[in-house]
Write a structure and sequence with these properties.
heterodimer; A: 202 residues; 29% helix; B: 182 residues; alpha+beta; eight-stranded mixed β-sheet
């Protein structure tokens, strides 16, 4: 599936289109992105025809959702989540962050944080999922900072899991609970900030 | 099935949908303004999926689909679904994609046209639906057409810090009302 409009403060998550594929392809071939060593990028470098097939396949896949991240009016990243038990059972299970990429030419501008917060608003405030989970390479400090600030906690560490740049690195498995979201962000990060009153029930 | 053209009042009409209408409706369903009482904004937006769905709906003998037009411009969709031709019962649905036009009575007129078609052309006996209780605009539009509450489904879904109940409504064709139905 493809995800609809989610507005953050500095970024917008929106439906990815074929016009975004050149950007996706560029990041897949960028060693700065690949150096994150986990599923930071979506798929391997490939021909344009293959990228189009991948987008069509993603649109059809009912077990996952992908968004393009836009900032300052242009493509700035992508993110993708999946459900462990099928879309009909989203609220009963956890949602996994499988891919999260920000254009490496636009790193350190706060877009990653804003897009991540917006994505988690969808997970917890719209879908009302019980938990979210992801895994990150231990040296991916920028991503880890975002995850910890959101409220993720490490529940497992795989030793020497990923290999790149001539060395092995650990894999951190992280999980965040709905209660943590409510506690940290529930007061400020509502998709619909104004609750609907009982007068509407009349 | 695709419904025929039904001209209503104040520029509102129900018209047969086109593939382009389907794609436009799906695009509208990706916006926060239209989905407070709708799904979680995830769609299969492949053009071939839209074509498949449009063809399937057009061929389905148990549903009637319309585009809602205002002054000949598409603003949403409505329909009668899961038609049981034996009990002559159906479920109704409506979606206004142009959120800037909410509150102008477009849904009320569309529901009136749809309901009259259900009785006068399809010979249906009963139509029912589900609406979020706090979606007062949609609920009132249905009530204006004659729908009555048959029950409430509590805590149907949770969004943005609130549980939402569903209003279950039903309407009967004139003269088909069961004893005691108000």
């Amino acid at each position: 599936m493809l995800g609809g409009i989610l507005r953050g403060k500095r970024t917008v998550l929106r439906v990815p289109t074929e016009a975004d594929l050149d950007g996706f392809a560029r990041w897949a071939a960028d060693m700065r992105v690949r150096g994150a060593l986990t599923h930071a990028y979506w798929e391997e470098p490939a021909t344009r025809v293959t990228w189009k097939e991948r987008l069509a396949k993603q649109s059809e896949d009912k077990g996952s959702v992908m968004w393009a991240v836009e900032a300052d009016g242009s493509l700035a990243g992508l993110c993708r989540v999946d459900f462990s038990t099928g879309p009909d059972a989203i609220p009963d299970g956890g949602i996994g962050i499988t891919h999260f990429t920000i254009d490496p030419d636009r790193w350190r501008k706060g877009f990653g944080w804003d897009a991540a917060l917006t994505l988690h608003r969808w997970i917890f405030d719209i879908v009302h999922a019980r938990s979210a989970h992801t895994s990150l390479a231990a040296h991916n400090e920028a991503a880890l900072r975002i995850a910890r600030r959101l409220g993720y906690e490490e529940y497992a560490r795989g030793h020497a899991v990923h290999y790149g740049d001539g060395r092995y690195v650990d894999d951190l498995q992280l999980r965040m609970e709905l209660e943590t979201w409510d506690e940290r962000w529930g007061a400020s990060e509502r998709e619909y900030p104004d609750p609907l009153g009982a007068e509407l029930e009349a | 099935m695709l419904g025929p053209r039904l001209q209503g009042e104040r520029g509102v009409a129900l018209i047969p949908p086109t593939l382009e209408h389907v794609k436009r409706n799906w695009e509208w369903m990706t916006f926060p303004e239209t989905t407070r009482f709708w799904g979680v904004r995830t769609m299969d937006l492949r053009p071939e999926h839209a074509e498949e769905r449009f063809k399937k709906n057009a061929q389905a003998p148990d549903q009637v689909n319309w585009t809602i037009a205002l002054d000949s411009e598409q603003v949403g969709m409505t329909g009668l679904f899961d038609i049981n031709w034996i009990t002559r019962d159906a479920e109704s649905g409506i979606f206004i994609g142009r959120h800037d036009l909410y509150g102008r009575g477009i849904a009320s007129e569309a529901i009136r046209l749809r309901t009259r078609f259900a009785w006068d052309e399809l010979g249906l006996r009963r139509v029912h639906n589900w609406i979020a209780v706090r979606n007062r605009g949609s609920r009132r539009a249905n009530e204006k057409a004659g729908y009555r509450q048959m029950g409430r489904y509590p805590r149907s879904w949770f969004r943005s810090g609130q549980w939402h109940d569903e209003w279950l409504g039903e309407i009967f064709a004139p003269g088909q009302e069961p004893p005691g139905w108000v």
